[in-house]
Amino acid sequence: MRDDRLGDILLAKRLISRSQLESALAEQRRHPERLLGNLLIQQGILSHAELVRIIVSEQHLPMARAVLDRRKQANQPVDAHGVPLLRVPPEEAASLAMAEGAFPSPIPLPRLEDFSMTSETEKELTADAFIAIEADKLDEARQIITQGLTILPDSLPMRYLTAWLQSMDKRVDKSLLILDKHFGTSSDNASALWLTAWNLQKLNRHKEAADLLQRMLRRRNPLQGWYFALAYSLDELRLWKKARQVYTYFIRITRGENQYTWYARQRLRTIIEHLEKTEP
């Protein structure tokens, strides 16, 4: 990533001030062989974890296993620019979809931008935990989160990540309890709402999941995966016409082919055939 672009991104995300950037750029002019990111770290303006997170986010670098990378697309805003084009051969998309088993809804990946942190320690620990999760190093993430809650017992990012790991460990009820206590369904936190809806689906509470997802989709910049998740719950509720409409829209807004578009196309065929037989 070019240094001028990195500087603009850091300013836009309010991770550094204009004066801090100008100071680092002045130092770089004196030592042109040194990278801006390294200078900011050495000056204590930016942590290494924050720098890695920014570069990974902006460059869409694959930090996790292939399936997890493909799931990332479902966690992108619908109108996001530069979403990776995830083309998957049809036979691979089919095998990925079938590997999901009876529950195909995409995993809600944590999004660091949904959380505000009050201290440098919280920022660094949260960024480290998010990076470990993106790299699919869940044991490492658990250690970081345990450390974080010991130091910062009231940290909302750490509470959310605890709920996320509980859900991944199939302790869905416990995950929901944590989310309800610290966030609730009236929360503005997109990550917490997405995980809540996913947990409700796991428990076959599709009416509650569909109601929550419909409220979420009225937010600014809804995520692509929310549309698939809503279609899936409507499908499970046998609301065929609504499911058909949302599956169709999800396919239209998703760039490339993946296991979710494959599943949506299969369900669309079945739903259309069913409606043709049952409707006059």
From TrEMBL:
<protein>
    <recommendedName>
        <fullName>Tetratricopeptide repeat protein</fullName>
    </recommendedName>
</protein>
<dbReference type="InterPro" id="IPR037257">
    <property type="entry name" value="T2SS_E_N_sf"/>
</dbReference>
<dbReference type="InterPro" id="IPR011990">
    <property type="entry name" value="TPR-like_helical_dom_sf"/>
</dbReference>
